[in-house]
Amino acid sequence: MKKVLVLGCTGSIGTNTLDIIRNMRDDFELCGVTAHNNKQKLDSICNEFKIKGILTSVDGPDGIKKLIDEQKPDIVVNGIAGSAGLEPSEIVLESGIDLALANKETVVMAWPLIKSLGKKTGAKIIPVDSEHSAVFNLINQAGVENVDEIVITASGGPFRNMPFADLENVTLKDALKHPTWSMGQKITIDSATLANKGLEVIEANRLFDKPVDKIKVVVHPQSLVHSLVRTNDGMLYAQISDPDMKHPIYGALTYPYNKKCYLKPFDLFDCEMTFFKPRTDDFPMLPYAFESAEKNGSYTIAYNAANEVAVADFISGKIGFTDIPKVVRYVLDKDWTNEPKDFNEVFELDKLARKIASEAL
């Protein structure tokens, strides 16, 4: 029986994690949850599972630390969206507890510090993003020394086939119509701009210690192949399943074991799989991410912060869809060569990048 604590229990990752626990009560015990500010849903979950939960908008990081200390989970699932998920990841690893990580920003903003912290306390960091979960599994099976290249798949978002001239006129409602996945507003818009894939490129570069020229992105609208690796002999190996986040979450919860579960196996018959090159000229958030990862320093912090500010202003109607990469370009053109020495410096650089992004707006 593994004790699981879920950060961000009302979001997509949290909801899918709870579904796994409901269906596999002999394997997992939910021992605590957090939500940002949805008290009604939090109370409903706490009543169902007879557990304690907190609102992070009220109790903050100290509340998360106290909850972890009280419940002593075996693993924590971090499903918090955005840069707000970084400090909770730090708290989990400082406590020496394994981290099932769905929060991209933890890796994008502070990977050297996070990696060092995990090594220091002996806590494992297991990726939950479907793409990085796939790469993680494929590398473990092929052997890290045998993997030459990582290929990350992208759905292409709702505007994959839209001419560039029409992108200026897309609305928030248009951007939230993701063709494959059901996610929160911010990540859905990131998928439409390809910023989400950009963040995943940075993650892959950090998590798997691969140079950016060994990371490729391919558009795969069906979202059945979650990523691929190319071995030294040139062969490609893929992980294939239905587009359901329960698979990578379950894999993280059971790691390092591969156990049978209630999830439906993928049926290969009557399925179609197509692959295309991404339109990097029309969706510059992807090449900006490659550039940020290549430059190191604090460029990836600036990329993430500028994007969060721009997306928030697109949601509020202050800017148009094609203005998002313009804001990010403005911020990246500043000097971000300094490498943060600690988490305080990470947050200071994040704050500075947001200020500059606001100037761009």
Report what the structure shows.
Helix content is 48%, strand content 15%. With 361 residues, it is of the alpha/beta class. The strands form two sheets. It has a six-stranded parallel beta sheet with strand order 3-2-1-4-5-6, with helices on both faces. Helix 5 links the parallel strand 5 and strand 6.
Average pLDDT confidence is 95
Question: Which strands sit side by side, in order, in the main sheet?
Answer: 3-2-1-4-5-6
Q: Report the radius of gyration as a whole number of Å.
A: 20 Å
Unreliable residue runs: none
Q: Please tally the helical runs, counting DSSP H or I stretches of 4 or more residues.
A: 15
Structural class: alpha/beta
What is the strand tally? 10
Assembly classification: single chain
Tell me the series of helices and strands, N- to C-terminal: EHEHEHEHEHEHEHHHHEEEHHHHH
**How much beta, percentage-wise?**
5-15%
- The dominant shape is globular
Q: How much helical structure, as a percent, in the residues?
A: 40-55%
Major sheet: size, sense and barrel closure? 6 strands, parallel
Distance between the termini: 51 Å
